[in-house]
Amino acid sequence: MIIWIASYPKSGNTWVRSFLSTLLYSKSGENDFSTLKQIKQFPTRPQFDNLIKDFKDINELAGNWIKAQEIINLDGEIKFFKTHHMNCTINNCNFTNHKNSLGVIHVVRDPRNVITSIKNHYSFLDISGATKFLLNNDTWLDLTKQDNRSGGQIPTPLSSWKNHYNSWKNKTNNYLLVRYEDLIQNPNEKFNEIANYVSKLTGFKFDIQKIKNSIDSNSFEYLRQLEENGKFSESVHDKRDEEIKFFSLGPKNRWEDVLDQATIKKIEDHFSNEMKELNYIS
Known about the structure:
With 282 residues, this protein is an alpha/beta fold. Helices cover 41% and strands 13% of the residues. Helix 4 crosses helix 5.
């Protein structure tokens, strides 16, 4: 069965994925990004081989979400997948179900900071465009059109930040909420919480020292240094083919320093209930 690492884009998914791949697949918990690809993304085109003829046909795609997961789960093993996909339903077709999903680690970030990270990541968006991205109920990702990678991504519904958050919170068993801000402020506590969640859910046993090593070698500064040294293979490029740093700001990303009052008010008004629930506003 699948344990999802789910998030809206630019909310810390890769950070959690890096920690888990280090903990699960390295020998001693020392991270050099060599294990990162052990936790793959869903959906991608190879997972729908022999299922879909037209990847632009959203109805055909939705009708095969579950089938693709059933094929993945044929071996009966527990596996982890990263996803930005909304846990949605299209034409009575669910993105996933309890038969295929064991649980979800849901990484959530203050939408005011998501705006600035999306602007930095997608170089063709300014603050206004990034704000519309978060507010739009019809936002979709098709990364093969948005940057120059060729990783086999396929159309992925996001909807708004609010709808995406609620879709995972309300529809999944064994739900673990992880706020990005808590990873920044209390990494030892939150990564230990993730390790304990995985251990209880799967029965996997982790050595205390390996957990510590995995936490230490997945600090934001450590990851940024690995990227600087050319170890990170998932960086994107802008229109001039210049690399956009993935681990760029982290704790230094402060919406207060970037957003104008009108944008702040728009976000807080649109997402008021969810932001209060997550203690982003009072």
